[in-house]
């Protein structure tokens, strides 16, 4: 904890062997990354009083991995982020089929060599899985910082 300051609840929730089921974010960058993942993995229509919050990414799980599907996924991400996270500027979205070299550990948030990846349980190594990398800049602070998230859907 930096100077005893926390910013919010870290998302996605993780299992803990020591009882820490609601981890908190320790910096504004962590909070923004957590908010982005929360937005992207929330199904549209699932939140009361905010039915447009989220994306329709789960609807693309069994769609063909081709150009039109990839452009629809990109458009969905850009529209949702533009509406609900104005402090983020998406610089690049790369969507490609996931390869067999990904071993699915379940629904976990991985930090390994600077790579953060959220995998949909049981699907991350299937031939119909898409790997989505979203590069973004945080623009609502005095100093711009860049980061990325990777989702396997």
List keywords for this structure.
globular; 153 residues; alpha+beta
Please, could you describe this protein's structure?
- By secondary structure, the chain is α+β, with helices and mostly antiparallel strands.
- 21% of the residues lie in helices and 24% in strands.
- It contains 2 helices and 5 strands, in the order H-H-E-E-E-E-E.
- Strands 1-4-5-3-2 form a 5-stranded mixed β-sheet, covered by helices on one side.
- Strand 2 and strand 3 (115-119) form a beta hairpin.
- The longest helix has 18 residues, at 67-84.
- The protein is globular and about 45 Å long.
- The termini are far apart.
- The model is unreliable at 100-111 (pLDDT under 50).
Largest sheet: 5 strands, mixed
Number of helices: 2
Helix content: 10-25%
How many strands appear in the DSSP assignment? 5
- On the 0 to 100 scale, the average pLDDT is 77
Terminal-residue CA separation:
32 Å
Strand content: 15-25%
Low-confidence stretches: 100-111
Strand pairing plus helix content: what structural class? alpha+beta
What strand order characterises the main sheet? 1-4-5-3-2
Rg estimate, integer Å = 16 Å
* Principal-axes shape call: globular
Please provide the ordered H/E string of secondary-structure elements. Answer: HHEEEEE
């Amino acid at each position: 904890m930096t100077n005893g300051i926390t910013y919010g609840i870290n998302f996605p929730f993780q299992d803990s062997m020591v009882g820490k089921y609601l981890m908190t974010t320790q910096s504004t960058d962590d909070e923004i990354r957590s908010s982005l993942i929360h937005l992207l993995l929330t199904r549209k229509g699932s939140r009361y009083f905010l039915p447009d919050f989220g994306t329709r990414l789960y609807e693309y799980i069994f769609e063909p991995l081709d150009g039109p599907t990839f452009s629809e996924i990109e458009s969905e991400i850009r529209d949702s982020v533009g509406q609900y996270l104005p402090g983020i500027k998406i610089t690049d979205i790369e969507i490609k089929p996931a390869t067999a070299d990904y071993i699915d550990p379940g629904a976990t948030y991985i930090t390994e060599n600077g790579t953060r990846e959220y995998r949909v349980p049981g699907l991350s190594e299937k031939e119909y899985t898409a790997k989505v990398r979203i590069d973004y800049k945080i623009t609502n602070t005095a100093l711009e910082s860049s980061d990325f998230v990777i989702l396997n859907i």
